Amino acid sequence: MTHTLLRGRLLTFLRAPQELGDTGSYLYESDGGLLIKDGLIVARGAYDKVSAKAPADVVAVDHRPHLIMPGFIDTHLHFPQMQVIASYAANLLEWLNTYTFPEECRFVESAHAARIATHFYDELVRHGTTTAVAYCSVHKTSADAFFAEALRRNMRMVGGKVMMDRNAPQGLLDTPQMGYDETRQIIAEWHGKGRCHVAITPRFAITSTPAQMEATQALAREFPDLHIQTHLSENHDEIKFTCELYPEAIDYTDIYARYGLLGDRTLFGHCIHLSDREADAMSETGSVAVHCPTSNLFLGSGLFPLKALARRDKSVRIGVATDIGGGSSYSMLRTMDEAYKIQQLLGERLNPLESYYHMTLGNAQSLSLADRIGTLDVGSDADIVVLNAAATPAMALKMEVVKTLPEELFLLQTMGDDRAIVETYVAGVAAKSTI
Ligand code: GUN
Ligand code: ZN
């Protein structure tokens, strides 16, 4: 297999930045080279040194003056909600019942699921996202379409069929046994195939009976290495209804704890309104709170206390995500722009280094996949994004006065979208320019 050599300004994180001046938290190479072979990064460093290692038949791509970073990671979104985006609703439960549940019913049809899967991956790649963690619909057909397309594109993707057996239309319900059996089938058919990872996916406590939660617990015990994903503490009415459904639990988080679902492989979407006790439980178990800023603003769900959760003595692990289609943009740049504004409203600062850490290494760590994705380290998957901070006339004008790397990153986050994504490499192959 031929080698590929990328040239440009390299940026990759080593750890979470402590402050804007924390230059030890990242590596930056102003004239850098990345050598790629068989889908992996095999050398990284100053361009002259890396190019000296390249064979004569290397395919070289010069991306100067653009930034080369690890591909973005989106840790929570809904594959069957591409046509739910921009649905006008007062709040989460109205939005689910009026638009989202009816739309997800359509994914019983394989042809529809396959068509949307094509668009889904096109949008991820167009926006520089190379790994995403997705909810499919309740139908096995939707998970099959999701993973078939991931495999075809050789993308590292995490996903699962949602398990839901109450409080939704008939066409969207499984049973505890069916949810268990189909999840097992999907694991057998897809987990570990290509770069596919199956996640155990009870939608949320409102749509799962105690019997289904037990089935979920059984799956979690049988497959301890799999990710688990669900929703937690997004909206006040949701919290109230949930606690009424599980009166024996002391709070929302305790419901999942009672079924053994807290842990370092579990991703809890939203977590906006956690009590101290719940945050302690998340911290003690290594559970991840996934912040979905565009969704939280769009649905009016609330302001996620990202900085407060991160700086507690018992800190909570944090991921960031689009939450399409409650979320309103596929772009992780747009997502972190809204995350920044939420922290502003809370009187907190989220600096641009932190934002890019979260989109890359931070999200990889929240998935326990940092050995494979989220950095430009040698041995990592060659999932890469190339960014242009002067992608539009207005951005180019602002770039004239930008002097530092954090300023450039902040401009990209504040004004950037898919137009700022010059190229997305999936396992070393240019994927955006070939859509
Ligand atoms: N809670 C349960 N299901 C969903 C969903 O599809 N989107 C959001 N935002 N919250 C949920
Ligand atoms: Zn969600």
Automatic annotation (TrEMBL):
<keyword id="KW-0378">Hydrolase</keyword>
<dbReference type="Pfam" id="PF01979">
    <property type="entry name" value="Amidohydro_1"/>
</dbReference>
<keyword id="KW-0479">Metal-binding</keyword>
<dbReference type="GO" id="GO:0008892">
    <property type="term" value="F:guanine deaminase activity"/>
</dbReference>
<dbReference type="GO" id="GO:0008270">
    <property type="term" value="F:zinc ion binding"/>
</dbReference>
<keyword id="KW-0862">Zinc</keyword>
<comment type="pathway">
    <text>Purine metabolism; guanine degradation; xanthine from guanine: step 1/1.</text>
</comment>
<protein>
    <recommendedName>
        <fullName>Guanine deaminase</fullName>
        <ecNumber>3.5.4.3</ecNumber>
    </recommendedName>
</protein>
<comment type="function">
    <text>Catalyzes the hydrolytic deamination of guanine, producing xanthine and ammonia.</text>
</comment>
<dbReference type="InterPro" id="IPR006680">
    <property type="entry name" value="Amidohydro-rel"/>
</dbReference>
<dbReference type="InterPro" id="IPR051607">
    <property type="entry name" value="Metallo-dep_hydrolases"/>
</dbReference>
<dbReference type="InterPro" id="IPR032466">
    <property type="entry name" value="Metal_Hydrolase"/>
</dbReference>
<dbReference type="GO" id="GO:0005829">
    <property type="term" value="C:cytosol"/>
</dbReference>
<feature type="domain" description="Amidohydrolase-related">
    <location>
        <begin position="68"/>
        <end position="428"/>
    </location>
</feature>
<dbReference type="InterPro" id="IPR011059">
    <property type="entry name" value="Metal-dep_hydrolase_composite"/>
</dbReference>
<dbReference type="GO" id="GO:0006147">
    <property type="term" value="P:guanine catabolic process"/>
</dbReference>
<dbReference type="InterPro" id="IPR014311">
    <property type="entry name" value="Guanine_deaminase"/>
</dbReference>
<comment type="similarity">
    <text>Belongs to the metallo-dependent hydrolases superfamily. ATZ/TRZ family.</text>
</comment>
